[in-house]
Amino acid sequence: MNSTPAADKALDQQDLLNEAKRRAGSSDFGPDWFLDPMAVVLKSIREDARLSEMGIIIQRETILNGLVNRLRMFEAIKNHPEILDEEVNVAGIVLGLPRTGSTMLHRLLATSAGMTGVRWWETQNFSPFPDEERGNPEPRREAAKQILTAMLESVPDLTAIHPFSIDGPDEEVIILGQFFISTMAPSTLYVPSYSAWLVTADQRPGYEDLKTVLKFLQWQDITRKGKRWILKAPTHVTAPGAALKVFPEAKLIMTHRDPLQTIPSFCSMVTSLYKLTSDDVNPTEAAAYTSSSWAGHLNRLAEYRKTADPERFIDVRYEDQLADPHSVVHHVLERLGVPQSDEIDAHISEWLEENAREKRAAHKYSMADFGLTEEQIKNDFASYSAQFLS
C-alpha cells in the first residue's frame, strides 16, 4: 500500500530527529546504531499500517517520546558518568509465546524479595522529566496514568486481555520498541515488511542500550541497590543469543502453552491494539500475519535450543503454573539461586489473592473471528510443539 502525504510528513525520519532534539534541548543520541532500524520501521508504518489521522498523530508522538527519552538519558549520563558504573545483575528473562502465563510469572518473580523489574510507568518514560527531583518520579507516574486512561477509553477490552498496573512490573519490549528493534511494532501495528527485516537483524545493540537503561533506572531509584532484575517480554524469543551475550548471568525462563489456546487470544489482543491507530483493521489479515510470524519465531527458537546450553533455560508449562503456582515459583527461584522460604510462600499467596483472574472482565474471542483453523495453527507451530509440548 502506498503511504499518504500526511504520514510522509509526520513520520519523516529527519524531521522526527530534529523535533526530538528541539524538545529535549539536546543533540546527543548516544550510539547511532538505531537509525537504520528506525528507517525500516518508519517506512513500514507509512506504507503498510494504514494509519488513521489520529493514528498518525499517535505514532508521531510515541516515536518522539522515545527519542526524547533517549536524548535525556545520554544527557544525564554526560552529567553523571557514575550511572555507567552501576552493576546490573539480571537473574532471569521471561520469554515465550504471548498468552502463556508469562505476565503472572514475571510479576510473582519480580516482586519477590531481592528482585526487581521495570515498572509500567518507567516503560513510558525511563528518563526523568526536566527539573525532576531524583527519587521523586511522581510526574512520570501521572503521565503514565493519562496514557493508560486514553488507551482504555479507546479500547476498553484491553483490561480483559492484559492486567495493566502503573506500578507493576511490565515488559521492557516497550523500551526496546523505542529503540526500533523489537516485536513491539508488529504487536501494535500491521508492519509485515518490518517484521521480515527483524528476523535478519542483529539485535545485540538494542540489548546493550537496554542494559544502559537498567543502569539508569537503578541509579534513579536507590531502593533497587543490590537487587537482581527479572525481565520479561515475548520479543526475547527473537534474539535469545543476543540476550544471553549482554546478560551472561541470566537464565531464560520460557513459558509454554498450546498454540491452539494462545494464538487466537493473542490475535484478539493484536487487533485491539491495531484499532488504536487504524480505522482499517482486517482481523483475518492480522491473524494470518501474527500466527505465521510467531510460528517462525518459536520454531527458530526451538532450533536454537537444540545446541544451546540447557542450564541456561528454565521451562514452565502454563498448566503447571495454573495448577500449583507455589511450586512453579519456588522451582524457578531455586534455579535462580533463591532458596525456599515462608516469606516467599506468603508473598505468592498474597499476590494471587490480590490479582485473581476473576476480578477482571472475561476475555471473549473465538478462532473463527480471525479466520484461523486448528489445522493451520498445528502446522505453523509443528516444530515448537513437537519439542516442548509433546
Percent of residues in β-strands: 5-15%
| Order of helical and strand elements | HHHHEHEHHHHHHHEHEHHEHHHHH
Question: Roughly how many Å is the radius of gyration?
Answer: 20 Å
**Quick one: how many beta strands?**
5
Helix content: 55-70%
Overall residue-averaged pLDDT value: 93
Structural class: alpha/beta
The strand line-up of the biggest sheet is: 2-3-1-4-5
The count of helical stretches stands at 20
Global shape: globular
Low-pLDDT residue intervals, each spanning 5 or more residues: none
Major sheet: 5 strands, parallel
- Separation of the first and last Cα atoms: 41 Å
Give an account of the 3D structure.
The chain has 390 residues and is α/β, with parallel strands linked by helices. It has 20 helices and five strands. It has helices at 5-10, 13-24, 35-48, 53-79, 102-110, 120-124, 138-154, 158-161, 173-178, 184-188, 192-200, 204-220, 240-246, 259-274, 283-307, 318-323, 325-335, 342-354, 374-380, 382-388; strands spanning 90-96, 115-116, 228-232, 251-256, 313-317. The chain has a five-stranded parallel beta sheet, with helices on both faces. Helix 12 packs across helix 13 (240-246), helix 15 (283-307) packs across helix 20 and helix 17 crosses helix 18.
List keywords for this structure.
390 residues, globular, 5 strands, 20 helices, five-stranded parallel beta sheet, single chain, alpha/beta, 57% helix
What's the layout of helices and strands?
Blueprint (H helix, E strand, L loop, with lengths): L4 H6 L2 H12 L10 H14 L4 H27 L10 E7 L5 H9 L4 E2 L3 H5 L13 H17 L3 H4 L11 H6 L5 H5 L3 H9 L3 H17 L7 E5 L7 H7 L4 E6 L2 H16 L8 H25 L5 E5 H6 L1 H11 L6 H13 L19 H7 L1 H7 L2
Parallel strand pairs: 1-3, 1-4, 2-3, 4-5
Helix pairs in contact: 2-4, 3-11, 12-13, 14-15, 15-20, 17-18
